[in-house]
Write a structure and sequence with these properties.
This protein is of the alpha+beta class. Helices cover about 20% and strands about 25% of the residues. β7, α3 and β8 form a beta-alpha-beta unit.
Length: about 200
């Protein structure tokens, strides 16, 4: 299996020099058992594509929605050395109508209650209906309605290790990146504002 540090070092070298991304594994194996190399490559490409909007390029958030909601699938990746911490994150109810725990579809449509794929710019922290939250701006056509849909990062009672164990799946959001209360401060401290969150399926 490819070392996360070796993979990230090579990939970031390609980003920094603005040349083609280096070859990455085509197998479904995950880097160090956590990060999917194909999804990570797409996130790094998005970081380069939106470089004028993304001020801070030290840490990115990577939401791997090819995994079930019971798995820690929201990764905070330090690009300097490839270290990462992984957290639970819910997907939108419109993306999983039968509540199977698996994201079935993405949507950017208003009132879809679905998760949107693509690159997000992290914004200011505020206190709203869900308590401490962080605004997001969608940077791609697949998530361009994120701000008008009020898609944000917040914590939720239905996101916890206990919920994942007892029910086999987390609850569902209205499209927001809902994390556990124990993860919220680390996620917001590490990511905002002016950083990238990339959401997709491998």
């Amino acid at each position: 299996m490819l070392s996360r540090r070796v993979f990230l070092g090579a990939a970031l070298c390609g980003v920094a020099s603005a040349v083609a991304m280096p070859a990455v594994p085509t197998s479904p194996e995950r880097v160090d058992g956590g990060l999917n190399p194909g999804l990570l490559r797409r996130a790094l490409a998005a970081l380069e594509r939106h470089r004028e909007r993304i001020v801070h390029r030290d840490i990115i958030g990577l939401a791997d929605f090819s995994l079930p909601s019971r798995a820690p699938r929201f990764h905070l990746v330090a690009l300097a050395d490839g270290s990462a911490s992984s957290h639970l994150v819910a997907h939108g109810r419109g993306s999983d109508p039968a509540h199977t725990g698996w994201l079935e579809r993405f949507s950017n449509e208003p009132r879809s209650n679905a998760t949107s794929s693509g690159a997000y710019l992290t914004g200011d922290r505020y206190v709203g209906a869900h308590g401490h939250s962080m605004r997001l701006d969608g940077l791609d056509p697949t998530n361009s309605n994120a701000a008008s849909r009020a898609i944000v990062v917040h914590s939720a009672w239905y996101v916890s290790k206990q919920m994942a164990r007892s029910r086999g799946a987390l609850g569902r959001s209205q499209g927001c990146f809902a994390v556990s209360g124990s993860s919220l401060e680390e996620v917001m401290e590490q990511l905002g504002p002016g950083r990238l969150i990339y959401a997709g399926k491998a």
